[in-house]
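Table 4 source record.
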Amino acid sequence: VPITNIDTSYTATIGIGSPPTDYTLVVDTGSSNTWVGAGKPYKSTSSSADTGSRVAVSYGSGSFSGKEFTDRVRLGAGLVVDKQSIGVATSSTGFTDVDGILGIGPTDLTERTLSSGDSIPTVTDNLFSQGTILSNLVAISFEPTNFQPVTNGELTFGGVDPSKFIPEITYVSVTNTEPAKNFWGIDQSIRYGDDTNILKLTAGIVDTGTTLLLLATNAFRAYQQATGAIMDETTGLLKIDNFESLKSLFFKIGGTTFEFTADAQTWPRGLNSAIGGDQDSVYLIVNDLGTPSGQGLDFVNGQVFLERFYSVFDYTNKQVGIALTPYTFVPTNQVPGNPFEFSDV
């Protein structure tokens, strides 16, 4: 399923109903309800059924509430789900230029979102239970870009796309630590350069619905001190004057250490205007989670992290996979002479 980078999110075009109406939905592994109505209104068709339940979900930034329907959902060629639960928003906040969310987080995240008290199978669950895919998992490929919108991502339901990653995939079990274990939570440690520990082994989550790489406040401050970056009040991001001095971050996940290069730590220069920045500045994509470490959710590996690593979310085995990609080490964001470096977004 092709997905589109719209700057701070990736979206999928999903058909709902018979005949289908296309909706633009944010791809979100950090939540599990699929819903529409933030932009384009829901259109009831012959496959639509009102369940009589109310549904409501709050997010880190935004919320929606409305009615639950079941309907036919077309994710892509050969990927059709019958009687998928769909939230139809009567009110929503925090969503612009999209119609809602495609929730592909763990199924348990849907508990207590319905007035009936039932949990809701995700689209991945239903593709598997209805025999459309052989494995209950979804794999995700993002790619860095200096211009947008661009359709440069991919969802693979039921398997992985070998052309999108460099073997092998490192799989780790979902963490046992609350509250990260309720999400696609993993344990990892983070080091800056050769010897500056930023975050000891701790729990956090992998979340396509978060744009930045977020660290617990004390870890973020350690990163800021190590890099010498200053907070830019206009963008809300760190800004660094000497990009050449920026060192790699190293994420230890399972038995594998993944290098997150200096270039990967920067916001794409060609998209500076999209965040209110000036075209000549270098902004960093590491930001403050807003809580100290030790709270059970000490980091969020968001979109900018996943643009450098392939990810697999396995419902059956309750595990997350991470792998290198052809873009892991490619300097795309700040490379001199990049044809999109000063594009007008």
